[in-house]
Structure formats: C-alpha cells, structure tokens
Amino acid sequence: MKILAVDDDPDFLTLFESTLTRLGYANVTFVTSGAEALELLSNTQVPFDCFILDIQMPEMNGIELCEEIRAIPEYEETPIVMNTILADRAHIDQAFAAGATDYLTKPIDEIEINTRLGVLHTLVRERLRTQHAINHGGADVFATPSYRFADQIPMRRVAGTIEYLALENYLKTLGVFRALSTKAVGFHVLNGQQLFDEAGPSIFSEVMIDVATCISDCLKTSSRMISYAGKGDFVCLLSRVEALDAFELGDTLRISIAEFGHIYDELNIHLPMVSVGPAVGCKALHMAAPTRILDEAILNARSAARHFTGFSQSMDR
C-alpha cells in the first residue's frame, strides 16, 4: 500500500516512519505541508493508496487538505486518515464532513494504527482487484464500476453522505459518551433486490443515489450523516434532540421519490419503495460498541417494511 503522510513536525515524522516500518509499511512518502502534498499529487505517476494527515499545520490545515484531495477525481474514494492531537467534537465533525475515512489521535498507539491500517489495506486490495477485473475483462475503464447488491456504493456527490466505513469510524472516534448525543435512523428499499436483478448494477447504483438524494432533501434542515450500507439499506446519524417522526418522514420521502416517476417510466424501471424505521439512540448498552446503533436502525427499517401491504420480500441480511 502506497501511503502519503503529511505532518509539519519533522520529529514526529521520524518517529512515525519507524513505527510504520515496523508494521510492514515501507512504501511511505513523508511531506511537511499541504502545499507540498498537493504538488506531489500533481506530479506522481503511480497514485497513492492512502493518506495520513495531521490537522494542525500552518497555511493549509489537514481538514482543508482533505477537502482538496477529495476534489481530485482520482482520490474521491481513497482512504484518508486524520492523525492529530485534537480530540474535540468540532474537529472530529469537520474532518469527517471533509471526507476523512478515519480519525486517530496522537500519541501513536501502535496496536490501534496497525488495526486501522489493516482494515484500509484490505479495502485498497479489494478495490484494486475490482479495477484489475475491469481492465482485463474487456470493460470500459471509464464506465461506472460494476457493484454487487451487497456493496456499499459510494455516494459522495450527494449532500450529507459519508462512506459506511467512515460512519462506523466516526462513532468509534466519538466514543460512547459523546455518541449519546446522536441517534440513527434506518431506511430500507423493499424492492432493492428486484431493481438490481432487473436493471443491472450500473442503473441500480444510480437509483440508490436518487434515493440518497431524496433522503438528503427530506433532512436538509438537519445536521446529518447519510450512508449506504449495501443491500438497499441506508442509515442516517442525527442529533438526538432533532425531532423526527418516522411515519411522517416516510410519507415525505415517498412523495419525493415519486417525482422521479416519469423518468423511471421512460427507462422501464420500478420506483424504489422505501420504508423508514424508528430512530435508535445510543444508550449505556452500546458502551462496548456504539456502532451497534447502525445495525439496529437498519433492522428497524426492515421491520417497518412489513407494513407495506401486498409486498413480500426476504428480510435476511
């Protein structure tokens, strides 16, 4: 895995280099500023697979650099890890809103960074295998990637969306006590499998992006993080004090989706049918794993799907 690490503290970079080398990450480039990092990206021939960014840097901080990297099409989905002494909620929120995949705090915890980079390394390998299959299978390299039904389709172009892995990492970074101020709401596309089977992966991914757009529009006054979990499931994190009625939201969402009706009719595609489950707040029972509220919210949405008369579909995840 080819890594670019950016930190304005040369002493830290020296220590960090030794740590990464011990962990088996030898293909790492170190620079001391955002400007240097962007110049390197514009000139490199082989793209980087992962970025590790400090936040507190002069001229361009790590959050601003994260936004600049995400604006480069080649790096829209590349893992970006923030590695900083800043552990307050405001910087955590800003970092993930800018496109961070994970957030670690200094000083370096060798076990933790090895675990987190291991997850990202697996993700990078999977994406490289997919790209290799496209390149060597006769498909158009510039075509929409071919997703499986269970895949977590990227939706970065939709306002308020975040990758599912990043959403999980956000909750882990908050910790259970700060996560107590959040709640999760799940959404389930009842006819998702049917849409996937009939329309194919490329069109299905666009339909899910339409659903995400409608969810975002219906929650546009809220501070929200929306993620696609695969298999027609969405989950959204909201402030716990945010008033939300699942039945009312479901009705509003279905009206919004119905506006795509004439377009879908022309393409001979069924409209997605979406159920909304009751919100799940983070409680003491989530102490060991605050990310459980995401699974529970999705299960609630799937349970709510049973209220759709005349619709029968397997609810196995």
From TrEMBL:
It holds the Pfam family Response_reg. Residues 2-121 form the Response regulatory domain. The modification 4-aspartylphosphate is found at D54. It comes from the Bacteria. SUPFAM superfamilies: CheY-like. Keywords: Phosphoprotein. Transmembrane segments: none annotated. InterPro entries: Bact_response_regulator (IPR050595), CheY-like_superfamily (IPR011006), Sig_transdc_resp-reg_receiver (IPR001789). GO terms for biological process: phosphorelay signal transduction system. This is Response regulator. It comes from Rhodophyticola porphyridii.
